[in-house]
Design goal:
Two copies of one chain form a homodimer. The first copy, chain A, is an alpha+beta fold. Chain A folds into three domains: about 120 residues, DNA Polymerase III, Chain A, domain 2 (Roll); about 150 residues, DNA Polymerase III, Chain A, domain 2; about 120 residues, DNA Polymerase III, subunit A, domain 2 (DNA Polymerase III, Chain A, domain 2, Roll), CATH 3.10.150. Chain A is about 15% helix and about 40% strand. Chain A contains six helices and 27 strands. In chain A, the strands form four sheets. In chain A, strands 6-2-3-4-18-17-16-10-14 form a nine-stranded antiparallel beta sheet. The first copy, chain A, has a nine-stranded antiparallel beta sheet with strand order 15-11-12-13-27-26-25-19-23. In chain A, strands 5-1-7-8-9 form a five-stranded antiparallel beta sheet. In chain A, helix 3 packs across helix 4 and helix 5 runs antiparallel to helix 6. Chain A starts with a strand and ends in a 7-residue tail after the last strand.
């Protein structure tokens, strides 16, 4: 194999696929990036894969000789990212100066690297094929909004299995994103008008282009509902991928029995699905409330950040005192060891005065994710779930359970 | 005690003195910042002290009642830095609402904090008085240049005692800064014209102003030589202090038997001196060389950063191959496990070709500190010390010992 490409293209694609390379691989070969050069197509494909999450990109390059090469991801990334902008030649051929040298070479304008290559490149695992007859076309912006609104609420505790994922539901109403770690729940709804459904012509064909012309299948009239839980880790990488420069405003999603695949032009992210029944979270969201407060999100967040200085791991609780007469919200934290903090702000309060306490971290996480500055807090009694919603903009619900107050 | 000041002034002064507050204090009271309010002067003084390093600042404030208060440095800093710009009132008085409450109060526009205060405020150690009859006036810029050029070369190994400091020598030639960890040595010379010497009238008087009018003492004709070794830790904080907005272009330095004090307007940093004989480093610097290379500092640094990707803790060595015929410098790193790297650059070489190896980290540290882009490397044989000097600008010498080459 021998290929020539520019430093900038190689570097950005390498850093993308490297995100799927495990830092502690279960098999040594997974610490590599797979480079596949195709002379006929004039393209170089890069792949990173940890058996659950895989990222693959493809870009045009001058391929002098087709072939496949597996190189240590971290080392290659470290080298390429530090090289100045210039042409880079990568080859698996022995160095002409030393014929018995079996190392791969990387040559730039100012110098030359020899890198010990993985010899058993054929052991690099292949992505299982996706067996889906249809795929969804989603606007990148809707997916970004959904992920930004819920990802933070997924559990980071690996033993919680299905809760370490984000639950996606496709219904007639649109696409819904949900994540919960059992203490709080975040839900974002994307309107149906933004989601399109198309059929895959044949498995072996390349996926049709996301433009209108490619719509030869079920079209937006398709109504096949589905539910899937995708590991938050994979979606964090997807969010990163969506944030980098992109050519297309839409992304394709394919779902089969065991996996999901997101196709964004020449970038592909595949992930195993999380098995198991996702909790019926919709039942947790109260439909009626005895109290409602309109708040300035940034002011509330500022106040919480201030009183949080006194909160600690022993006592991570903030007390909300809603004063209906004064139309005032008081935040307070009280500790034995250090002291106490109190912040006041005006708020529009409908309903009776009440005191209610929360885990301050959960509250701040949710407030940071809410996509509007004017927000609504709705609650019943001090031991019932509370919801926060934005006034206008994206449809999002953040539910948090209160904690018991100490007295 | 009761004092009113603005958030921005309090915050910047607090963060400065907090740098002298130990994270693991040997005595609990040292975890506090000392606040001393003087009604007559209308000033608030803040002090942080770890028994070796002390920082004290003073600023004008509305003092309603004189007094002294010791408050936990980290907590106070965390609170004040997060408060919006507004007036802040600090008081050691019991809260009027709860007379038996002995906590200090901090009141801002939006809220109120109660902080458990240190009761035995009189236990807070006093700075020992400085017994110096003279002091030096240094331009801030000269001190900054000196510290930037040598601080990195001081040892971080606490057992190396005197080598954990920077050695300052005052001679007729000016003020010289030196630091070495026994593997490399950095020396910066400040010209004599920039250093002034004045006498302190009496111990109890405030130090005279650094302006020419205040020069009633020995003047720049004073010729008392001295040597002092100051802990690098204290000088890092001094460098930080010099970098923050300052009113005066010059700083005063007092030295007595046990300590040094730097006075920068209303900010004062004192440090214990390091005891022990500093190595006679001047003897280490060769005066004659058989080879000389002119180099572009940034290009050399870039090249080293690239080949350093392959260097690791086992083999941290870079080989320099000076090719006198080609007028070329080749950098190379060779490892068993990973691969090899080679970078080439043009260089003006006087003298015979040679191969010589260095610890790559030491080399990069020095190149980052050299204050010019055109630099000169001078050497003899491959086992003798090598020096790097800037062409023009500040007078600096960076000496590094080569390492033995592996073959």
């Amino acid at each position: 194999m021998k290929v020539v490409c520019t430093q900038s293209t190689l570097s950005s694609n390498l850093s993308l696929v490297s995100r799927a390379v495990p830092s502690r691989p279960t098999h040594p070969i997974l610490a590599n990036v797979l480079l596949e050069a195709d002379e006929e197509k004039g393209r170089l494909d890069l792949t990173g894969f940890d058996l659950s999450l895989g990222i693959c990109t493809s870009f045009s390059a001058t391929v002098i000789e087709s072939g496949t090469l597996a190189l240590p991801a971290k080392l290659l990334n470290d080298i390429v990212s530090r090289l100045p902008e210039s042409e880079i030649t990568i080859s698996d051929k022995p160095d002409p100066e030393a014929l018995e040298d079996e190392r791969a070479t990387l040559i730039s304008a100012s110098g030359r690297f020899k890198i010990n290559q993985e010899k058993n490149v054929e052991e690099y695992p292949e992505f299982p094929p996706v067996e889906a007859s249809e795929y969804l076309v989603l606007p990148v912006s809707a997916l970004t909004d959904g992920l930004r609104g819920v990802l933070f609420a997924a559990s980071t505790d690996e033993t919680k299995q299905v809760l370490t994922g984000v639950h996606l539901t496709r219904t007639e109403a649109g696409l819904e994103f949900a994540a919960t770690d059992s203490h709080r729940l975040a839900v974002v709804q994307t309107p149906v008008s933004e989601v399109e459904e198309r059929s895959v012509e044949t498995e072996s064909d390349p996926p049709p282009s996301p433009s209108r012309e490619g719509d030869r299948g079920g079209g937006s009239g398709g109504r096949e509902d589905f539910e899937v839980t995708i590991p938050a880790r994979a979606l964090r990488e997807l969010k990163q991928m969506l944030g980098s420069p992109k050519e297309s405003p839409s992304i394709q999603l394919k779902v089969d029995e065991g996996q999901v695949v997101f196709d964004l032009d020449t970038r592909h992210l595949r992930s195993q699905k999380l098995e198991g029944q996702y909790p019926d979270y919709r039942r947790l969201i109260p439909q009626e409330f005895s109290r409602q407060i309109s708040l300035d999100r940034k002011e509330l967040l500022k106040g919480l950040e201030l009183v949080a200085v006194l909160a600690d791991q022993k006592n991570n609780t903030v007390k909300f005192s809603l004063d209906s007469d004064k139309q005032e919200l008081n935040l307070s934290v009280e500790t034995q060891d250090v002291g106490s903090a109190k912040q006041s702000m005006s708020a529009q309060i409908v309903g009776e005065s009440i005191e209610i306490a929360f885990n301050i971290k959960y509250l701040m996480d949710g407030l940071r994710a809410l996509p509007a500055n004017e927000i609504k807090m709705q609650l019943n009694e001090g031991d019932r779930p509370v919801i926060f919603t934005p006034l206008g903009g994206i449809k999002m619900t953040y539910l948090v359970m209160p904690v018991q107050m100490r007295d």
